[in-house]
Amino acid sequence: MIKFCMRIFSLFALSASVFMLLVSSSFASGHGGTTKVGFVYLTTPGDHGWTYAHELGKQMVEKRFGKDVKISVVENVPEGPDATRVIRELAKQGNEIIFTTSFGYMEPTLKVAKEFPNIKFEHITGYKRSKNLATGNIRFYEGRYIQGVVAGLMTKTNKIGYIGAYPIAEVIMGINAFAQGLRSVNKDATISVIWANTWYDPVKEADAAKVHIAEGADILAQHTDSPAMLQIAEKKGALGFGQSTDMSAFAPKAQLFASVNNWGPYYIKKIEQLRNKKWSTGDGPDHWAGNVWGGLDADMLTISKFQNMPGDVAKKAQKAVNDVKTGKVNIFAGPLVDNTGKEIIPAGKTLDDGALWGMNYYLKGVNGKIPG
Amino acid sequence: MDALILTIIATSIPLLLAAIGELISEKSGVLNLGVEGMMLSGAVGALGAVLWLGNPYFGILAGGLSGIFMASIFSIFTINFMTNQVATGLGLTIFATGLTGLAGAPLVGKTIPSLPKIEIFLLSDIPMIGNILFKQDLIAYLSIAIIIFATYFLKYTKPGIVLRAVGDDHHSAHSIGYSVKKIRWFATCFGGMCAGIGGAYIPLVLTPHWSEGMTAGRGWIALALVVFASWIPWRIIVGALIFGGITIAQLVGQARGWPIPSQILSMMPYLATIIALTMISGRMSKNKSIVPASLGKPFVDSQ
User: Fold this and answer.
1) Is the per-residue pLDDT at A24 higher than 50?
2) How far off is chain B from A240, nearest CA to CA, in Å?
3) CATH number of the structural domain spanning residue B136
């Protein structure tokens, strides 16, 4: 009886692992001089958000290098000890460069990088580095500044509903950048934040969106991963912004634009460096975010088409994009005051990157307090 | 206010359906921990059917059938091959998570029309109540009908009493000539159907798209609700509404800036479940009869 149970169970396990192999490994046919590249994904491209954006980056690599690269992908890798095993396995299989695409892979990547000094590792969004471990990140907050500008011009109720995942620096930075954009065009509008305490739960994200709308918000923004919020906006006649990828297919009448994570150019650059034997961890400033922290000007963050807004709003939004790109606008330039009236920096100063990663306050324009 | 109450109801319905299905299944002595998996397959089945056939009502049908399909797999193993129900149920959820991911891959990025609201003649014009209770979609009405049916079925009909007998003492039920296996097959498939329709509610009404693992743990909450309701159907309505109510209240609290940390608010629904479970298990030691006595035990008819 127990034996039978175990047999059934191993059958399940076996089918699950065969299944994983089928789904997760995409092999380009190998030739001489090919570079073996490994990717570790947190979920599957089916999330249509974070991991999907990495998948698009991987596809750009395939397109650019063709048969010169041989890519292995492992999907659905939980952050923690399992990640160490997966990364080590990719290293053993002879991948020459391995991209680990979630914050929680930081320690596992560091550990495996020490074991394989000849293999290059690239950790996305982390801050720990070593000789053969580089880090890359995107200035997501720049897109949120543009969202703030558009929201400020489009809102009628002057109430913006924002759905955050967790109150960590990256998300708070985004909210504050949004507030800066918002107040650059509309001093009366305010943002209220609902923390979902999850990156991904479509039903909860939808509920949060419904509550925001019931409380009077007419523009919604999110820092969670599913398109649920936009779908609610579409249904209830509100407007909002897409996250990580263009989500206009889900909300053709509600999406104003999406901030799109564009990892392709970064991947291509790093693989190119490796192939030319010029790979390095980069010489960017050693700030929290990593060696490479690119935004709109580096083309690592792109803005999808402006939709569902009058032409003059789109024009102003485009101008804001250009100003951020050229550096004419510094999003966190003083005077900065937090939402309790305390001065953060006086006029003439700007927050440096380190200060962004230490944000634990809301700027003026955001309601409430950061929990915890 | 209307809008918030409607949101609470909407967020409760998948839980309510999955829980009543599991209740019937547990009453017959089958503990199926695969609710989460059956809900996922219902969701992907419903979305696929609507994309293919165009009409959202086919989604309800397809959701139910997908749930029954998953429940049949579970039944074959646990009822016919007498495997351990807990292990098989967990296996079913793991299997369904993978299978729906594969089946759902071509559906990613597509969106479907939502299930229409049905206004009930005259009743829907009653102020407040009409808007909340009588302008719902078919699944919402269906879920209430299933609760009423389940109450009546278990209490007043012969098949219902036989089903309970099978769950309480399968050997006695067998010895007086009832087919334990058939009855458990029926109950498990009914549970699968309800869980499937509950899962289907998510893409059909709440967020009309497919993304992997989109039920995000609601199947587990449904399992807890059955215990919370102490295997009495109408209490599932109360439990589901309390859970939905707390979920929405914590979101409203944040939007309005109530001075309570959001983490504590997020924890509330789970805390309420744990407190309810503790209270019930305290009562259970006094009155053991509320738990089906053969729950989770495989039936071996050669004995």
Assistant:
1) no
2) 15
3) 1.10.3470.10
Give the minimum alpha-carbon distance from A235 to chain B in angstroms, rounded to a whole number: 9
Answer whether residue A51 is part of any domain.
yes
Q: Which residues does B33 contact at the CB level (< 8 Å), separation at least 6?
A: B85, B86, B89, B90, B92, B93, B223
Range of the domain at B156: 2-115+132-288
- Rounded Cα gap, residues B194 and B80, in angstroms: 22
Residue B296 lies in a domain: no
Looking at the structure, do residues A91 and A163 belong to the same domain, yes or no? Answer: no
Residues 6+ apart with CB under 8 A from A58: A39, A71, A73, A267
CA proximity to B228, closest of B214, B246, B204, B212: B246
Report yes or no: A199 and A223 within 8 Å, Cβ to Cβ. Answer: no
Are both A196 and A338 inside the same structural domain?
A: yes
Tokens of B117: 């609201």
Q: Which residue of A has its CA nearest to B84?
A: A5
Candidates B221, B251, B253, B214; CA nearest to B239 is B221
Q: Is residue A28 predicted with pLDDT exceeding 50? A: no
**How far is residue B45's CA from residue B49's CA, in Å, rounded to a whole number?**
6
Considering the domain boundaries, does residue B208 fall inside one? yes
CB–CB contact A201 B94 (8 Å): no
Best residue of B83, B201, B207 to probe chain A, by most A CBs closer than 10 Å: B207
Confidence tier at A361 by pLDDT (50, 70, 90) = very high
Domain membership flag for residue A367: no
The verdict on A223 and A165 lying in the same domain is yes
Report if residue A2 sits inside a domain.
Answer: no
Same domain, A72 and A176: no
Determine the structural domain holding residue A186 and report its residue range.
141-261+303-356
Residue B216 pLDDT exceeds 70? yes
Q: Residue B280: CB partners within 8 Å, gap ≥ 6?
A: B227, B228, B230
- pTM beyond 0.80: the answer is yes
Q: A residues 187-216 near B, CB within 8 Å? A: 192-195, 197-198, 200-208, 210-215
Total of domains in chain A: 2
Task: Give the least confident one: A213-227, A266-280, B265-279.
Answer: B265-279
How do residues A182-229 score in pLDDT, each as one tens digit? 999 999 999 999 999 888 888 999 999 999 999 999 999 999 888 899
Pick A197's closest partner by Cβ from B98, B110, B262. Answer: B262
Average pLDDT, chain B: 89
Counting the structural domains of chain B, the total is 1
CATH number for position A23: 3.40.50.2300
B54-58: long-range pairs with CB below 8 Å, 24+: B56/B112, B56/B113, B56/B114, B56/B115, B56/B116, B56/B204, B57/B115, B57/B138
Res. B150: pLDDT tops 50: yes
